[in-house]
Input
Amino acid sequence: MVSVGAKGTAATAGTAARVRRVGVVGLGLIGGSLALRLVARGFDVVAWNHTPRPYGSAERAGVRCAASLADLVAAAPDVIVLCNPLRAMPEILRALAALAEDGALDESVTLTDVGSVKGMVRDQVKAAGLADRYVGAHPMAGNEKSGWDAADPALYDDALWAVTVDEGTSYRRFLDVAELITAGVGDRMIVLDDGTHDRAAALISHMPHVVATALANELTESDDRNVAVALSAGCWRDMTRVALTDPDRTRAMVEEDAANVEALLRSMADRLVAVADLLRGEREQAAESRDADAHTPQAMLDFFADADPFRAYKAAQPGHLAAGDHPRVTVMVSADGWRGELLASARRGEHIVRIDAERTFTALVRSAL
Amino acid sequence: MVSVGAKGTAATAGTAARVRRVGVVGLGLIGGSLALRLVARGFDVVAWNHTPRPYGSAERAGVRCAASLADLVAAAPDVIVLCNPLRAMPEILRALAALAEDGALDESVTLTDVGSVKGMVRDQVKAAGLADRYVGAHPMAGNEKSGWDAADPALYDDALWAVTVDEGTSYRRFLDVAELITAGVGDRMIVLDDGTHDRAAALISHMPHVVATALANELTESDDRNVAVALSAGCWRDMTRVALTDPDRTRAMVEEDAANVEALLRSMADRLVAVADLLRGEREQAAESRDADAHTPQAMLDFFADADPFRAYKAAQPGHLAAGDHPRVTVMVSADGWRGELLASARRGEHIVRIDAERTFTALVRSAL
Output
């Protein structure tokens, strides 16, 4: 199905684009949308999917489709992006490792992925012996849908990607992926280590999904459930929305980032018990003093004030500030320290949008907490 | 400022309307919107506010404004609705008790309120010696705004009210309030005891506000906060939205329903720790068995399945089913058992929309969990 034709004309960045042909493994919502986006931006895209069901539609849209993973590799992509479900990752990595062993997968080909956890994927990449060529990536893109039929290149409009690196990551391969994301897909990126990524993802998504489910369970197990749901309004609707999504997918996501989610759940439980203890103390004090106005302790005031930096951050967010309206900075990195220097940039709230030269990046400055 | 004129022509229900003149104490968002709504529906509305600031605008809109609480009482309303902030409640109740003592506040006048907690208000009403004439009420209406300038009669469009009663509640006074809400304001209502109301409100609003704040604190106290907020999407936005509202108001709301919130926070903490323990168990088992695929225990599957009735309830909710499209039932109550019979109706998911006769109601049937 694949014919190794002339390489496409990739969109060019400030540096000469090294990546012109991209292999996409998996044509679901994320992979399919990425393939369509890259085709629209002038890349030569070759894709393989575990079933050829989307191939007719994909080929009409300009995506070359490979009959097998080996055929995709034979098409000699510069970068292969693994967009398969995480549960299929070990098997696909073993197949790629075998192709590398045979010499079919050239040493120059860079491997990346779009998985929502990075530590587990890197462990699997290492187990397959492919760590040398790997750079982790995770686009903040998606919606409630799934599958090729929902694929839409606009899914990547102004999206932020996390790119994860470790001590073994080759700077050349990092640039391949960084260029693909910025000049190629037209998106923003921040550079992290796997641990920072997975802790942050647990904090703003994986752990809250468990909290939302626990809230829903508090309702379903209450004798007052029909009264409570009748009285519920926006607060309840918003705080339980993610409990309505596919529970198997949520459970898998939580289990894939288990250590971080576990620690955050214990921390959240401690916070809730601390407030419960303060409320009990206030009631006891009010009962003792026969004073209807309970005295609010400083710790209770502190609990509510501790969220002030987040309130200030949200208040400072412009509704829809165009990318061009953010201040820009130049981020220069050293040959030895680039990983830590780019992580520090991410921690300052900078989003890289362009590679200007070998070690010089342009970043948008977002407000920080 | 008040002239005791001819009574207005109130909208009529299935029964002859007993309530034609309504006193509204407090012209903030909730009280101001109620006053405007009642004027629009043909009631004679007399209002008192702790400052006359809104009076010019209110009088132009048809609301008669009283120079003092005594003047409002002198206008001889059939029902007085306390829409003042809860912190002002004890003082206003003492003033009303003094007016009752003097004979200025007639025994026939029914007292109700719109407070978001019912047990505490009833305790204050009892302390003021006004329990005989009191029926609790709480409209599920409101938005992010406050004050007279934000008042809008549309705030009560298709709103649900909780009406709370206890063993001492007069059936006649209950009907006054029920009729005011259904035929008068044009809304739905459910009838509860204070405890059920306050437990339900803690479950779907007060406790979740604490959870949202704890989530925000988890972010603000994290070293990864700027990375995490950069990666955050809809899940985080929705689950922390209510943490952005006025923290003093949230704290007061939580403290007013302290016992219920305390119990629910401990229950939530237990749920989160249980999931944390399950995640630890899964990791230990995976490490021992050297099996990358951790075996998910039944308890973890159960945690995610326990929310299924809520998922089914939400899936069964029509997007915007018009009131007329819901099935209707007739709810008949006995002279002795009406409180329990109406509570049972609420627990079945029925919303009362009309008083057909002395002890016969029409209710819409909402889907139940």
